[in-house]
Amino acid sequence: GGNVDGFGFHGNKGSTGNIIRGCRAWLNSDDGYDCINNSENVIYDNCWAFYNGYSTGFVSRGDGNGFKIGGYGQAPVVSSLPNPIPSYTVKFCMAYRNKASGFYANHHVQTGIVWYNNSAYRNSTNFNMLSQKITKSMVTGKDTTLDCPGFNHVLHNNLAYKYSTQRDTRNLGSSTNTYNSFSPGIGVIVDSNDFLSIDENLLIASRQADGSLPNVNFLKLKQGSDLIDKGKNIGFAFYGTAPDLGAFESNFSTAVKDISVDIIPFYPNPVKDILYFKSPFSGSIKIMDINGKLVYEGRLVSQLNVTFIEKGIYFLKINADNIISTHKIIKM
């Protein structure tokens, strides 16, 4: 019931290259992920946080944020802050039913945090961008800090689904807020009909054989959802004409010109050595990793030796007669 977090990173200056990926944090008495008083950048990628701030039976305990990113306390001494103050990236993460905020900027000072393609549901506040600015005290004349609405944060392609009287956002301030389900003018409505499942029991399913997070339908988009293809292309692989909103890219698309595996079949999938194509078309293919980095580009041929590609999940993009389709493949 004390100040216990699931994953904490509080590195010293010089502790660089930090990535927390593919993790689950739940039923921690305080926060799921916390990097308060940290001196270097951290990337949070494809992680889940749920039920934090509670003990079993949902007895209230500590703060209870899912992702508590950044910050140095409510009124830090400016001279004690690291220089430069680090920023952070939180991408393709999911926060559900945390007692406080799902995604929380935690009074972060001056620099912003990057939030890409995250999903938040049933948190007291789904996205809370509370910031601090450095200002000069009128009493002492010294630099001090002051809480304020968010600024310098960048939010793209995020999805917020509030429960009952809970809030989607707080303290957005002047943050860059576009292509999110809560952005002005986005023109979407989020409700339970957008998702294949909102069964929270799926969150504690066993991991997959390769050790990755379970492949379940929780908060994955249903075909026909208006959240599909509503995001901004920020360099990650996606299906259709644009990325979907949220942490889980769907196989469905609103694109009229998308073509299916039935038109350009390929096999096997998963693939170990040779990827075979049966197609009447001419065209090109690209293979990208899950971060959108191009690992192969070439002509559409009858077969492709992929032994040079490392094991993992990739996206295969086929351009045939100016019709484009994207497919997920697994390399064994």
Written account of the structure:
There is one protein chain. With 332 residues, the protein is mostly beta strands. The chain has no helices and 29 strands. A 6-stranded parallel sheet has the order 1-4-9-12-16-21, with no helix packed on it. The radius of gyration is 22 Å and the shape is globular. The two termini are 43 Å apart.
| Coarse morphology | globular
Q: What's the gyration radius in Å?
A: 22 Å
What is the typical, i.e. mean, pLDDT?
A: 90
Which H/E pattern describes the elements? EEEEEEEEEEEEEEEEEEEEEEEEEEEEE
Name the beta content range: 25-35%
How are the strands of the biggest sheet laid out side by side?
A: 1-4-9-12-16-21
Question: Summed up, what is this model?
Answer:
This protein has strands at residues 7-8, 18-21, 24-26, 33-34, 42-45, 48-50, 54-55, 59-60, 67-68, 88-91, 94-96, 101-104, 108-109, 114-116, 119-121, 125-128, 131-136, 143-148, 154-156, 159-161, 167-170, 176-178, 266-267, 274-277, 283-289, 294-299, 303-305, 312-320, 323-331. It has 332 residues and is mainly β.
Write out key terms for the chains shown.
mainly beta, six-stranded parallel sheet, globular
Blueprint of the fold:
Blueprint: E1 7-8, E2 18-21, E3 24-26, E4 33-34, E5 42-45, E6 48-50, E7 54-55, E8 59-60, E9 67-68, E10 88-91, E11 94-96, E12 101-104, E13 108-109, E14 114-116, E15 119-121, E16 125-128, E17 131-136, E18 143-148, E19 154-156, E20 159-161, E21 167-170, E22 176-178, E23 266-267, E24 274-277, E25 283-289, E26 294-299, E27 303-305, E28 312-320, E29 323-331
Parallel strand pairs: 1-4, 2-5, 3-6, 4-9, 5-10, 6-11, 9-12, 10-14, 11-15, 12-16, 13-17, 14-19, 15-20, 16-21, 19-22
Antiparallel strand pairs: 7-8, 17-18, 23-24, 24-27, 25-26, 25-28, 28-29
